[in-house]
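Workshop exercise sheet. Pairs work together: one partner reads the sequence aloud, the other fills in the structure field after running the prediction. Swap roles for the next sheet.
Pair: D.N. / O.F.
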Amino acid sequence: MKVSVLGAGPAGSTAAYYLAQEGIDVELIDKTNFPREKPCAGGLFNPLLFEETFPHIKEFDGMDVFKVKFYCGSHTTEYTSPKPLMRTTLRRDFDSFLLNKALGAGAKFHIGQTPEGDIVINATGARFIKDYPETGICLVNDFKITGDMNTAHVHYAFGGIKGYCWLYPKRGYVSIGSGAYLPQRNIKVIYKRYLDFLRDHRIVSVGNYTYRSKIIPFAPIKRYHTDNSLIVGDAAGFVRPGSGEGIFFAMLSGKIAAQTLIEKRALSWYDKQCSVLFGKFLRPATLNWNRRLLNRVLEKAIEICCENDATFRRMLVENYFRIANHNLRWKFIRNILR
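Structure field:
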């Protein structure tokens, strides 16, 4: 059996790595050479879980972030975790690392080659808005900075956005972005205002308004396989709606795709495993149909955190970064009634 993996991002390189480790003939095909830039915040949420799930990434040296600051409306709260909330990285470095791991395991890398495999793993990323039930857009860039930063900033509903803006610190860089559900008017204006906000509040000043943009699928496609192919990562819509996080689910879907072929299972088994292992994280938030109402709920949640409810604050942060999965509903209602 020969397998063609289309796309050498986290999903494709992970699939190729596990396939090649088992001695399967695998060609990894991308449209461009590496290292290459990619619009992405570059945050590996819950890095200890990353290392547990993908032991081969333990050698990768990113920056662990323990502190986060949440904003919504006029309210702000912060939390410092005893274990890392996320590991930040430049995507060009992380993607090159994963590609080299796949090549080291025996995969062959080609640029722009026609696939020759009996089975194809589609890891080409999100391409068209019409392909997904719900989509969003993000504007993001990595900016060089002098000095050190150690706090992530997450600003819900900034400028009325149907989503949030963020700053993630990295070694020598910061990732600054704005992400929103579509349709979203004036996102370029909101992005510029956020950069001004960060400067005016003396958080960071980057000196320009450059960005890269991409669409984000906020709901998976209906079926993740065809007669001779498996669809992984962003191409399948494996992105968490509440945060826009996709790297973990991309790599996990790549690993499951490889396992499907290694164990010679029916391709439909891949769909079931994806649904069982991480399907719950891909369900849209209850109030996504009314983003204005959701923004008001988020503002109230941050206000509750400001009122020194330390337990609720910890639960909110752990849910966002997938450190733990809490049911916030009743605690939230109880705080409002109180």
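Discussion prompt: Residues 247-262 form the longest helix (16 residues). What would you look at next?
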